[in-house]
Design brief:
homohexamer; 266 residues; alpha/beta; Rossmann fold; four-stranded parallel beta sheet; 8 helices; metal ion binding (chains A, B, C, D, E, F)
């Protein structure tokens, strides 16, 4: 990614080793807002990822992509919300799910907090398909709240959802590497990214029998019966840490472009 | 802390480099549940911590204490919820707050998820005073839900809130080191812990003028006027990274004892 | 559509001129449930459809498709919910919107009602893109409720969302007829269907200036400014009633197949 | 009804064959609002109406009355909300009920939508006794919202509930025709109106044994036991389509007068 | 009221000077439940009652009637809920109102508490017209909850609302004493009862100018403009303490009969 | 308490025999607000208090303390909310509990009502430990609402919670009189106060076996098993009415000082 996608920030912020909001002070945020009204909010999920995948896969990957996008673009990144809507995975121990209505309220409150400070363009980097409906539903509620409260920026607010695993570049790469064996859940592409980020996970990988074929999602009990080990048509043992590095680069590149377009949009 | 506080776990779990749920697979959790029904849930906040403190202070510290307690006791640790109830800090840019009602729903859903898997004793390690009321209120709602749904474990459920910064050992140490200058918010003790955990934060520290004296908390606008730079009677520039290491040890030691007592309680 | 997609219903139900639940008695429903656990629920929206389109377009079209699917398949059709999530259209007089959270509760209650009677496969025929996130979010809540209440059918429940305007057959036909001028809102395809259904609407059609190009959707005030007459890149005056008849047939054919597959799914 | 109860509308609206909002464009609504701030919102229910009555009775009748009132008075009529609060009928298959809290939120959102456009006097024509408490409760919530948001029209808002089946003219006529056999639910008067509106329903009518006597309403299980075929003291086979036509006229006449008084009220 | 309306209670309860739950112990309640599943719950409101009426009028009167009914029938009386839905009175200082949705949740929780102990017939004695819709709406929610939780007594539950001021005996007496000057709010009948209960209020009474005529109720701002001193067509200075004593007797007599019928109902 | 803690009120209010809002008229409140923006709101609970304690103990005591503080300080006292959060006592018949979320909404609405009239400093006198978390959580919600609605007084609002039984003076006295036998629930100190207030309760007192020792609080079923007669380490038969009088004086004295400080705070 070239420098053209890098925002110009005042020197006083240059000492930050990263764009992580949690490592900044409020005074640094105050300065940042003079030049940029954009911010990135990563969100994952805490849910089973097959017999060999880490339960934190979706949060780890969303966080890694978001922080890389932050560094490349110079846009601030909030802490990662690690819990999302994973009701259909509750048949597997370790899954921790927010109801969709709770997740919507959480998104609502976080966005309203940012809006109160003057942030106007919020870019959510999401690592979990099950969050999509809730995030979209929440957007309409936040617009409603901002308008109902007559917030001065209400009209200018723009929220955008970016699912890193659905970006065309990532999708094509996954197909190229794994073909049909990419599957739909606990996919080699996301597992690869976690192996790149957390090498200790390598020790948990192993060959697995053929997965249940990908299919529909209904209740969590049906899910467990239909996909007994948690995988939906995927062969995660194909994943390699070096693939993961590539996925991170491709996702960060694609989403950085999307983010810059979003911030430049008039 | 001696080994007596260490739970005996089957060898198959020994390859885990830590007790982090997000790095485990669901099959590992399944095995863990055979021997232990306890789990630790860390929760922080994303809010201003004075002109030199990191916005992520409360999440960073709660996470560090929780993970250390997990390692010492052999009890599983869930991902850290980084957002809490910080409404009164919303006058400072960068603060991201959940309304109390949202936080209660979040706690409710996370605890119910754990209960569905068979966890019966949930130990919340909290890094933020503003979360206390919401967490306690949520406990009663979860007990109600578990009972209303006739969950088999409903009667055996026990939830406990542990605020690491309020444990007597930590409190005494902070008084010994900083006296009255410990203050109430953006305290040297919590800042010290962040310096230990994240050395890059050292570069942000600097001497500060006398803080506004500690006092009551009402609305966020009143808060900003009463405590113009975010500190409540504290001198965070007294903080040293080595103090932080000691606070971590004292907190982990105290909370490990509390946790083991909680798990052994009949 | 051949008869193979027709469910076999007992003779006692044959006197029904249609499959409309609102024209049946409860005793007829009781008999129907002996043979079929499936039902269709149409949902629309009440919102502006450009300067010449009817405000009831989405409800009218969803209802027509649903009733035709009902007749072709022999599956019961509930009344059409005419109000959906149309917050972004509130800048235009006549739009009546449910908040997303309200729509989710409505879907929840209607589905739970059907589940209580023994319906297990519910097929929602939707006429409005803005409803999609809310409907999907609601599904997870209904599964949760059914499971929490230990309903005997909880595990067998299956809900499916079918957006008639997004079925490939319809999409291809619209492209073939109108090319890029199909646009995204107040499209000639949906307007054509309303002209077929309600010939009195013909008198309102007229040539229009070039529409604002299709683009993103944020707040309702931004929407009105961005799309001043309500159209998103569409030329609805291309619509003809005979096109509408064809769209109805194509949509009903595609969705009937989907529904039968859904009911036959094991 | 004489012309004195007809509002004067601009010629540009005269081509509307009816006063149905769903068949209007937003531009027509915009013009309408220049002259009239009143609107009619019909609401019914989808619930059992005895062994021979249509499940959609309450929606069908409310819609017919509302549209007739619209035509007679020149006041705009929104789409009919077909689902209401029918919890006590859930013991009979086919009943689809909103919880009272959901119905209140729905009424709230629809009224707020109308208020945002400038409508100030909203006249709800209701076909179901079970909706009354929810609608009245919702009114207070909408007034609260309008006031909390400082809407300019907040002070001028007026909502009125009109239950067509309780208007004295209708009540007297029903007594005259059916005496005590009118009963309380699945009454000959409402069934008569459906026969007038939907002649196909005639084929479902038949003589019935004596109904359970009218009495109190508690839970839905108690309801089914107390009123085994769904009727409460009524003999719906007395209903004739021509009676229905008369009920429609009487209801429309009475409610048109009420509506005009409501709109003229200072 | 004769003794036939007195329930037979075991001697062990005879030392109670009254039937007030707040003065009983849980052991006494346990014994009571062996013989009687009925209980009375009084509810009032805290709202303006004209320039001379006490703000607590509705709670005071409901409590007095409920306690008298309790003594006459031997049925237990819970504490009086002093706050109700009084949104339309918020234009007058001192009014404290619950939103309708809050009141519904309160009624829900109180009734569920009683149901959990085995109470099956709950008789609400209400002192405020503005509460009626909320209480009725809440009933349907409680029935739903009891059924959803599969409570053993769910099917047998019966709730009844008794508005003391609307009982025919009271109504007739008020008409006889005050004619049209009874009015609709801050009526001489309710004020008379407060004078009987709280003689200190006599000092606040005084003659007043003609009241605004009774009429409709919309927003609280409209209410204050329409009824500038809070009275709706009433002349409360007609009230005498001795009238109040009579109203208490008539109300208690009528409601005791209703309650006994309710408890005896099969 | 000296007169220095007495607010100066206009003569026109001097005829009030007490500071009870429920006995005032709205015109008196209007006058009061000219001089004082403070108000007291008492809240109790309706829950088991051991085998000999009154179920209404917490409401009775909070009310008595609040009214005494009102008289001593000249600050207005609202009606006592008799129902609080007592979920853990639901295993004992007679306990009536609000869910924490309901109690929070109730507190919210009551405080917002007072704020709308211009009250700015609200002092809650609480009689029940189980209410504390809910009340504190509610405070943050009310501040949020007041700010969201741009209420003119939003910034000046201050709410304070005073738990009479936790004031140091009361605590010391209880220790002095009863030592360890004070316990944690159904304590002699609170029972003593009820005996002072309601001498009829004396007849219910009796010696009791040793109580279960004080300990933790989890679910209501666990509570009943752990504390079989409802007491937590307390010997309520030590209570004497004259002790109660002393507790009332000490509590009123301590809280009057706190209240005056609160009102004088700049």
């Amino acid at each position: 990614m070239s420098n053209k996608n890098k925002l110009d920030l005042p020197t006083s912020l240059s000492k930050n080793s990263s764009m992580r909001l949690d490592l900044w002070t409020w005074k640094e945020v105050e300065k940042y807002l003079v030049n940029c009204k954009g911010i990135i909010l990563p969100i994952g999920s805490t849910e089973q990822h097959g017999p060999t995948g880490a339960i934190g896969t979706d949060a780890m990957t969303a966080e890694a992509v978001a922080r890389e996008v932050g560094i490349r673009t110079g846009v601030l990144v909030t802490p990662t919300q690690p819990y999302g809507m994973a009701e259909h995975h509750l048949g597997f121990p370790g899954t921790m799910s927010l109801r969709s209505s709770t997740l919507q309220k959480l998104i609502h409150d976080l966005l309203i907090s940012l809006v109160m400070h003057g942030f106007q363009r919020i870019f959510i980097i999401n690592g979990h398909g099950g969050n999509i409906a809730s995030i979209k539903a929440a957007f309409s509620e936040v617009y409603n709240t901002a308008s109902s409260r007559h917030l001065p920026v209400a009209k200018s607010l723009r929220f955008k959802l970016a699912n890193w695993f659905m970006s065309p570049e990532v999708f094509r790469q996954a197909r190229a590497l794994y073909g049909e064996r990419e599957g739909q859940h606990a996919t080699p592409s996301e597992i690869a990214l976690t192996l790149h980020l957390e090498p200790s996970l390598l020790a948990k990988q192993s060959e697995l029998p053929d997965p249940a074929p990908a299919g529909p999602i209904y209740t969590y009990k049906d899910f467990r019966q239909r996909y007994p080990d948690g995988r939906m048509g995927s062969d995660p043992f194909l994943a390699k840490a070096e693939d993961g590095e590539m996925f991170l680069d491709k996702a960060a590149s694609a989403l950085s472009n999307d983010l810059i377009d979003f911030l430049k949009e008039t």
